[in-house]
Amino acid sequence: MSLTHSTTASEAIETACSLRFDPRGPACDAAVSLPQAAAADAGRADAVRGEIEVTLDLRHAGPREVLLRYEIQHAGGPENADAPVVFVAGGISANRHLAPCRAYPEAGWWPAQVGEGRAIDPRRCRIVSFDWLGADGRLDVPLDPADQATAIVALLDALDIGRIETFIGSSYGAMVGLQLAALHGARLGRLVAISGVHRAHPYASAWRALQRRAVALGSLQCDETHGLALARQFAILSYRTPEEFDARFAPPRVVDGRVRVGAEDYLDHCAARFVGRSSPTAYVRLSESIDLQAVDPSRIGVPVTVVAVAEDRLVPLADAHALVEGLRRGASAEAPRLHVLSSPYGHDAFLKEEADIDTILRDALSASAPAANPNQEIPA
């Protein structure tokens, strides 16, 4: 096992297309680096990145040498090295860079919730994140969500982190968090599972299967880029809702002798941004991994906060209720909490409903926080 750190240069990490848009604004906002002055205003929060080589025994592929890439954000010097650890994980297109900091001023994929003054504040905890196993496209084998949990434990061991105080997972990250809680509960204090549950719904799995067929069709035509773009467009439709599209996009019109619908420009733009930073192999294998999700909630003994969205077409509300009922049969001394949001953004509500998610995260982190040190001062 080898452990290396890199803090000398920023890496160009782009934000997922679906991260920000306004129904009155452009089709899809671009991710941009913060101006130099704004980067300086990121305050004392800094980050370290590294890579760790480990051998993991994958459920469906046996022992494999893999490279785990991580980032840790934290404000403060060595005297704060024992600050509680919060692990944050997003969807299959998310990466280790969550929010801007001094070392890496790029926007990241969740700046609304991570940063000084945000719900997940680097002045109060060490914030750990990593690139999903298989995200670089080099691991062309079936990947179980349990494999990601095993990779997280290997990362914690290498970083000499005995316990995660709170694991915050959204979408695929929530699924992996449930695996971690079921398989390695002693390493975890509390779980926040947002828009991800103990199983993959058959309807959502069918949707993803068609996306993977689009990638395969592109490959057969020697046009992987087009296949991946089409798959991403199908995915965007599953992330959002008819209500949002109705409010946002104009009726179809005839352009150059063909009918073009109002959402096509938006979908094309999102697809173009996605294929520029994604691997078809990674997309297929991580999409498959979602469909392999299978956790018995009654095996989970840590406190869990479940966040569901009534309009989420990938994770039906009934499955969130079933998860909570299963968790109640577990060994946790604290009853599971369920928050149900209503949002036209559907599955992407964890990216868009910033105020609601902020409130839920602050509540969960407050519940898991250790007793305050009266001598510790945290600037406002």
What does this structure look like?
The protein is α/β, with parallel strands linked by helices and 380 residues long. It folds into 2 domains: 2-199 and 295-368, 3-Layer(aba) Sandwich (Rossmann fold), CATH 3.40.50.1820; 205-287, Rna Polymerase Sigma Factor, Chain: A, CATH 1.10.1740.110. The protein has helices at residues 36-40, 145-158, 172-183, 202-220, 224-239, 242-248, 264-275, 280-291, 317-328, 349-352, 354-368; strands at residues 2-6, 46-58, 62-74, 85-89, 126-130, 164-170, 188-194, 253-255, 258-260, 304-309, 337-341. The strands form 2 sheets. A 9-stranded mixed β-sheet has the order 1-2-3-5-4-6-7-10-11, sandwiched between helices. Helix 9 links the parallel strand 10 and strand 11 (337-341). Helix 4 packs antiparallel against helix 8. The longest helix is centred in the middle third of the chain and has 19 residues, at 202-220. The chain starts with a strand and ends in a 12-residue tail after the last helix. Pfam families: Abhydrolase_1. It comes from Marilutibacter chinensis. This is Homoserine O-succinyltransferase. Residues 95-353 form the AB hydrolase-1 domain. Keywords: Acyltransferase, Transferase.
